[in-house]
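FAQ: What does a multi-protein file look like?

Like this. Sequence, then tokens, then the next protein.
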Amino acid sequence: MAPHLTQLPDLLRAVDPPVDERVLALVDAEYGRWRSLHDRLVALIVELLDVASDGRSVTEVITRLIDDTAVGIDDLVGSGTDVDAGEIAALLRAHGSRGTVEVDGPVTTFRHACGSGGHYWREHPDVTTVADGEVPGVPGGRPRYCARCVRSIAAHAGDAWRVTPPERPEDPCTWTVTTAR
């Protein structure tokens, strides 16, 4: 299956013949429970970044988080140019992202409404943001949560996987993945 960013409830609604309404109701209920839990966890991470950055630089906090995380991203999606665009699409779907996927040879571009930090930013536009130059590779005016994402991915895959966070919360985030095909 080609990489996609369609959430399970939407996939089931597109099936022909139609899926039983009782199944759709169960899936919608579970998706709603997941969304609530995920939003709560993202809110906790946002607050933890703010608390941890009290008295130290955001860059220092993010670097420590990257260095001390027990579950490496390599285990989830591969590393460097061996990243798997299908696994990255699954990772985005698991975070509630929705959007488009374009594949052009070894380059896969995901343009999506982020389901994590971007979702939080859309719901809480007054979230703490980074200043220009505060976090290497992250434009000013982006939330600290987004800065953590950008830096984590850059540390993981370098130029093979690039995150371009949106200027405004309503705009799509762009992930560009170059694989060795």
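And here is the next protein:
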Amino acid sequence: MKNRHNKMRFVFLLFATISVGAVYFFLWHTTVRKGADTALLSAKILEEERKLNDSASLKKAVRAVEDKREELSKHFLGGDNVIPSLEFFETLGRESVTDFSISDVMVDKSIGNRLVISFTAIGQFENVYLFLKKIESAPYQISFKNISLSDQTIPATEKIPEHKAWNMSGSIIVESFIYKTP
């Protein structure tokens, strides 16, 4: 009977050991699987966080580019800043004490939609020359299409005797607005 009792004890202990081993293996396997799932979820979270940071960085870069594009667009003549450009050249005419007039303004599509201003400036030689120098130093990127300079005799009036005046006429191409340092 002792043998039978020991045998049952042995079978019970063997069964208990196998059961505990099976439960341990099940729990270990579940833990490893959950750990792998957790690692996968952590990797996905890190990837989404990186995408979010990249998205925020891209939005910030886009805003910076938009600001720079807006700043850059100020350097090119468009429909909204043609009038101030013309007023600028008229101011140069007044500052140089010439009789300045704009005879034609057009956008020439053959040269890339550039603004072409045809003008006339009449006055003493020094003043006409000063006007020409002021045009050259204007904060616009310009090129001269044509310039002609001639002298003429102005007939006398009741208040002013006959005198010589210089007539400068020409056309300039305004390509863009630039900040020139003096």
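Q: Is there any per-entry metadata?
A: Some entries carry free-text notes. For the entry above: The chain has a mean pLDDT of 83.
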